[in-house]
Amino acid sequence: MPGQDGRIDTLVFDGARVAVSAVPEASAWLMLSAGLGFLAWCARRRRPFVGL
User: Fold this and answer.
1) What is the dihedral of CA 13, 17, 18, 19, to 10 degrees?
2) In sequence order, what DSSP letters do the residues of 1-52 get, joined into one string?
3) Of 11, 20, 34, 49, which one has the fewest beta carbons inside 10 Å?
4) Do the Cβ atoms of 30 and 19 come closer than 8 Å?
């Protein structure tokens, strides 16, 4: 359904309407970076450190 300025801002998928945002919210970036940091921390803990 076009908005007032002609852009499409909703997506209909299997009868459910989903709002589409062109720019991700700050909380989405925070969750992404926290998740990647957690995965890196887990990978680091699994490998023993081999020094020079």
Assistant:
1) 140
2) -B-TTS-B-EEEETTEEEE--SS--HHHHHHHHHHHHHHHHHHHHHSPP---
3) 49
4) no
